[in-house]
Amino acid sequence: MRKAIIVGISLTLLILLTPVKNDSSQIVSANNIENAKTTNLYHPILPPVG
Amino acid sequence: MEFGPLIKYYRTHKGITQKELAAGICSIPHLSKIENNSKDANNETISLLLQRLEVSFEEMEEKEELIRTLLRNFGEKINFYLREEIEEIYHKLKRMEHVIPFSAYMYSYELYKYRYLLFKGLISEAEIHRDLLSKQRKNFSQHEGYLFRYYNAVFLILKGHYNKADELLEELYINDDNETINGEFLYHRALVKTSLDQSGHAIHFGKLALQIFMNQHNFYRILHTLMLLGINYTHSNIYEEALVCFKHLIRNAELLKEEKILPEIYHNMGYLQKRMNNQKDALAFYEKSFALQPLNSRNYLVTLYTIGELHWSGQSFDKAKECFQTVKSLSKELGVKKYTLLAEFYLIHMTSLEKGIKYLELKVIPYFEEVKEHKDDLTRFYKMLSEYYTNQGMYLEAVKYFTKQN
């Protein structure tokens, strides 16, 4: 019984403390895109209207 | 051909009275009615009257046919962006200007003249012509009405009113489905969407235009469309596709000896390299572009400004200062307010951060918010301001600009 409780608590802690890799990397890449959009220069020269 | 008014034109031009002209051919009231188009005369009478005026009936009919052919060719040459041929045809038509008002192509000619002025970038003259045409719009055929509205959209693009141009093109796209399936129209749609930072739409229309231009072997417009696609792929972070576009462009522009477009391609390749974080390559392409640009043109200004920004972000402030000083005086000379403000901002910013921020808030941002055409620049400045206020601990201000970013 005691063993089961210890295993249960360990598992819960393990789940709670494991970083959610996918979500955080998504946030990072979203930030990268946002940074790319706002800090880069956007002054292309357009072709002639004609 | 409207022979009545034509006879009247030549009669008054030669200083002949109705009595003199009608003698032995028809009565004076009959001639009067013919001249005012209120009576149809038979070909024989018309021939005799023209003969007396030393104008050949057949020649006039041939001229009308020639006007028709020239106008058709004119539209085609514009679609193919053939500058020299356009000039040639325009001058041929100009020499026939005295006959054109009596032909069935009076409005078509005036519309193409409007298009010619736009093609040449003579905006104020085009505006005067547009106002004249606007008074005649009730008399236009359906096709002429379509052309008028389409050319008005081109006029708006040249004026930099991209939102209005986009609305008008969208309206035409929905209402005049058959008319709008041509490369030039789709190209203009892509161009406007690019200017409005709507890259997805721009790529969509650009691809459609490219397909049509490729079927027509329309080389100049293929180059222009590839350039648009390259810019939009860059802007959408689809770098591989953008690279393919620019490599094609450089190869073909060199092959076609299209030297005019080469500096523009190098500039946009620089932009792509910057987006890919290849600072060195970016600067090299921008400088290559700069070396080929005609002195003191608008593009020269844009490239120089970009080089200035690159030096600024690379912390080579002396070089940046040099660039921005030239940009500032040149943009004033060319009347391009956007670059005057931007150059001034960087020059102030390099001497004092606080003064730079103040200038940004008081001068730059109100201008950019008012013209609503440079969303990307605005977002960048909002970000700069929100970061500045965060560092200063002025969170209310920081939040204000942070919210504006989104």
Describe the structure.
The complex is a heterodimer of chains A (50) and B (406). Chain A is an all-alpha fold. Chain A contains two helices and no strands. Among the domains of chain B are: 293-360, no CATH class; 374-406, no CATH class. Helix content of chain B is 79%, strand content 0%. Chain B has 22 helices and no strands. Chain B has helices spanning 3-14, 18-22, 28-35, 43-52, 57-79, 83-95, 106-119, 123-136, 142-159, 162-175, 183-195, 199-216, 219-235, 239-255, 262-275, 279-292, 298-313, 317-334, 337-351, 353-371, 375-392, 395-405. The model of chain B has no long low-confidence stretch (mean pLDDT 92). Chains A and B meet through helix 2 of A and helix 9, helix 11, helix 13, helix 15 and helix 17 of B.
For the structure shown, list the relevant keywords.
heterodimer, A: 50 residues, mainly alpha, 2 helices, B: 406 residues, 22 helices
Distance between the termini of chain B: 61 Å
Main sheet summary of chain A: none
Order of helices and strands of chain B: HHHHHHHHHHHHHHHHHHHHHH
Shape of chain B: elongated
Q: What's the alpha carbon Rg of chain B, rounded to whole Å?
A: 28 Å
Number of helices of chain B: 22
Q: What is the overall pLDDT average of chain A?
A: 60
Structural class of chain A: mainly alpha
Counting H and I runs of at least 4 residues, what is the number of helices of chain A?
Answer: 2
Helical/strand content category of chain B: mainly alpha
Helical residues, percent of chain A: over 70%
> Which stretches of chain B of 5+ consecutive residues score pLDDT under 50?
none
Kindly estimate the percentage of residues of chain B that lie in beta strands according to DSSP. Answer: under 5%
Number of beta strands of chain B: 0
Largest sheet composition of chain B: none
Could you tell me how far the N terminus lies from the C terminus of chain A, measured between alpha carbons in angstroms?
A: 83 Å
- The rounded Rg of chain A comes to 24 Å
